[in-house]
Write a structure and sequence with these properties.
The protein is an alpha/beta fold. It is 33% helix and 17% strand. An 8-stranded mixed sheet has the order 1-2-5-6-9-10-11-12, covered by helices on one side. Strands 3-4 form a two-stranded antiparallel ribbon. Strand 1, helix 1 and strand 2 form a beta-alpha-beta unit. It binds zinc ion (ZN) (2 copies).
Length: 287
């Protein structure tokens, strides 16, 4: 059985939807897709970026996202319409009673804006809060790795990303650390060759150990999932994982899940009672 997709976007995310997403929006279409593929549960974790703007070039982002880049070259994400979002969740629960539909957010850089975020939104209303590190400091500003690769050396970007992971754990506003390999997504293959995780193994392990010691789960982001991530997570003491496709279109829902679930079983992780539960592993017996 497929486990819940715990990282899904709909038209309530600022980089999703738009004019081509259809009149009914992608949330309804994504629920229809879940029924079609036999996915029992999903969590709509919309982007939640608070009072932040970051440096960006329009050439780096798809139109749905680049429409939010201003003339000064900053991406200014619009706020999440929390009430509209919860209304759509309620409507989908009514339309799809056989599907478990949970609420959530993908909270960007929680360590920088947690206080302000809590003033704006009662985070306890959401079933799941994923924490994401999307931007890194560059002088007085911040920017995404995809932008930084155009200005910095590839190793510099990767090192800066992994260095900031432990700092994000100062916030207790989130329970799952998403796509810890986010900076790998846009690794400049033409300039730097194929990404070799072993070159950054030490830094990855330090970051993974910090997440594990904080008691959080690590997301298995199935956009790209290689065995080194669950292997190092397990070896650094990780006890829980979630599975997320990071779908921004309905057809991407639960992409790669059968393979990912199989891989995590190999590393000793097992599903919980409900499909939306985190997968956990028993600690190795003491010798
Ligand atoms: Zn993300
Ligand atoms: Zn996402």
């Amino acid at each position: 059985m497929l486990t819940a997709d715990s990282h899904v976007h709909s038209e309530w995310s600022w980089d999703t939807g738009g004019p081509d997403s259809g009149a009914r929006g992608t949330m309804v279409a994504t629920c229809e897709q879940a029924l079609r593929i036999g996915l029992p549960a999903l969590i709509f974790t919309e982007h939640f970026d608070v009072e932040e703007a970051w440096r960006a070039g329009t050439e780096e982002f798809p139109p749905a996202a680049s429409q939010h880049i201003n003339e000064a070259g900053y991406l200014v994400p619009p706020p999440l319409d929390v009430e509209g979002y919860f209304g759509a969740i309620a409507e989908c629960r009514r339309l799809f009673p056989d599907l478990t539909i949970l609420s959530g957010v993908e909270f960007g850089q929680p360590h920088l804006v947690e206080h302000r975020a809590r003033q704006l939104v009662d985070l306890s209303r959401f079933d799941r809060v994923n924490g994401s590190l999307h931007t890194l400091r560059v002088g007085p500003d911040r920017a995404e790795p995809i932008t930084l690769y155009r200005h910095w050396g590839p190793d510099e970007v990767m090192d800066a990303y992994l260095d900031e992971v432990p700092a994000m754990l100062a916030s207790d506003a989130f329970e799952v650390f998403t796509h810890l390999d986010y900076a790998v997504r846009h690794w400049p293959v033409e300039q730097a060759g194929r990404f070799d995780p072993r070159r950054f193994e030490g830094q990855f392990r330090v970051a993974l150990r910090a997440v594990a010691e904080s008691g959080r789960a690590l997301e298995m982001n199935t956009r790209r999932l290689s065995s080194w991530l669950p292997q190092w997570w397990t070896e650094e003491g990780g006890q829980a994982v979630s599975f997320g496709s990071d779908a921004h279109v309905p057809t991407a829902l639960a992409g790669g899940f059968p393979e990912a679930q199989h891989m995590l079983e190999h590393f000793g992780f097992r599903p919980g009672r409900r499909p939306e539960d985190l997968w956990t592993r028993r600690p190795a017996p003491r010798r």
